[in-house]
């Protein structure tokens, strides 16, 4: 349909805008920094709904990696090398536990452990994750509201080919008795222990059909002017959020923008390629559009991406911007272009 590039500046009209951002992983938190640095935007009108599909217990520590990354990003504590944990943190406790024979595998820092211990204690007492996060964001002096995609357990599971059976197959391909075996594993097993090197057959969001959205999150979606799906892994960071029935239903009546995490056929980072192929998608920005299209109004691709995505994409508008966020100026510029485009095309 139509391609638009940079637009005139409408920043004075940002002050009343209400925005909700869907976030997971490391891509979207960069864009969240961009929005958080737009002075004219009232941060009390900014809500973030976060993926909890990778939440897990490590010993007695409750790990909610994508939530903690958003908390640290909005409080300026985030380690921007890894996009998890607290910058300049120490790892005394982590190292000492290893000496006692308990390897947490994930490197949890000493300052980071305080946030996770706070969550763990309250969860054990039966508190709701959404209430705990709200206390933590206030404790960190964050104005924006932050919600888990659900207070119910929804777990991202990866179906992989069991390498052992695969090798047996190769060795004894004539032996009809040897069958390809599959393993259903946690995302962390796939990404941390197996370094994302397994052959992925499929991805599931266990229990998502029965999971309730958080009331405040649904309220904020309904009251928002614009919903932004950030440039994160569509399969393991955004789709778990969209798999919560009430959330997806609500978004259908809203103005929704999405930023592609893939430029042409190249992801900027991570295992998004293998995971998209496992769901039958080619690795391309066009496939990202396919994944979101039933709720999408504007799809943002990188200026370096080709225009052939335009062919038959229905009535969705393509906006081309610089989507490679190397510094705070890039992040702020991308955030501003999204809001400028919204004001010009949906507000006036
Ligand atoms: C394992 C990895 O995980 P995670 O850290 O959870 O990251 P995301 O789900 O956010 O996926 C990373 C996703 O983000 C894209 N990305 C990263 N930086 C940028 C950027 O500056 N611009 C842009 N358009 N996309 C960005 C990257 O390509 C990845 O696909 C994971 O799940 O991948
Ligand atoms: O790949 C890693 N991811 C680590 N993560 C990130 C996370 O577990 C996953 O990498 C992301 O969820 C990928 O989607 C942490 C997250 C935290 O909140 C705290 C500590 C870690 C530590 C690691 C780590 O050592 N290695
Ligand atoms: Mg992730």
UniProtKB/TrEMBL annotation:
The keyword Magnesium applies. Pathway: Cofactor biosynthesis; coenzyme F420 biosynthesis. Its EC number is 2.7.8.28. It is an enzyme of class 2 (transferase). Keywords: Magnesium, Transferase. CDD domains: CofD_like. 7,8-didemethyl-8-hydroxy-5-deazariboflavin binds at residues 68, 107. PANTHER family: 2-PHOSPHO-L-LACTATE TRANSFERASE. Belongs to the CofD family. This is 2-phospho-L-lactate transferase.
């Amino acid at each position: 349909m139509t391609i638009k590039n940079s637009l005139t500046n409408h920043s004075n009209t940002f002050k009343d805008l209400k925005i909700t951002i869907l976030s997971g992983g490391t891509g979207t938190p960069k864009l969240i920094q961009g929005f958080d640095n737009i002075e004219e935007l009232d941060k009390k009108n900014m809500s973030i709904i976060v993926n909890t599909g990778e939440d897990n217990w490590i010993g007695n520590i409750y790990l909610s990696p994508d939530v903690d990354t958003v908390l640290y990003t909005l409080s300026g504590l985030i380690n921007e090398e890894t996009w998890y944990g607290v910058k300049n943190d120490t790892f005394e406790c982590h190292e000492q536990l290893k000496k006692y024979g308990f390897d947490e595998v994930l490197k949890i820092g000493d300052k980071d452990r305080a946030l996770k211990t706070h969550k763990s204690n309250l969860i054990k007492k039966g508190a709701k994750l959404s209430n705990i996060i709200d206390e933590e964001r206030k404790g960190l002096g964050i104005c924006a509201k932050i919600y888990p995609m659900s207070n119910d357990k929804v777990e991202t599971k990866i179906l992989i080919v069991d390498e052992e059976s695969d090798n047996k197959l190769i060795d004894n391909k004539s032996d009809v008795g040897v069958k390809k075996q599959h393993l259903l594993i946690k995302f962390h097993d796939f990404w941390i222990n197996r370094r994302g090197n397994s052959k992925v057959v499929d991805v599931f969001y266990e229990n998502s059909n029965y999971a309730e959205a958080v009331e405040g999150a649904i309220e904020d979606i309904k009251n928002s002017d614009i919903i932004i799906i950030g440039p994160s892994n569509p399969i393991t960071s955004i789709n778990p959020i969209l798999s919560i029935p009430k959330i997806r239903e609500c978004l259908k009546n809203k103005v929704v923008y999405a930023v592609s995490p893939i430029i042409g056929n190249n992801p900027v980072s991570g295992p998004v390629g293998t995971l998209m192929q496992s769901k039958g998608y080619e690795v391309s920005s066009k496939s990202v559009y396919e994944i979101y299209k039933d709720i999408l109004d504007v799809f943002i691709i990188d200026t370096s991406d080709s225009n052939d995505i335009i062919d038959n994409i229905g009535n969705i508008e393509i906006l081309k911007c610089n989507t490679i966020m190397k510094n705070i100026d890039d992040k702020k510029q991308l955030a501003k272009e999204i809001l400028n485009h919204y004001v010009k095309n949906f507000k006036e």
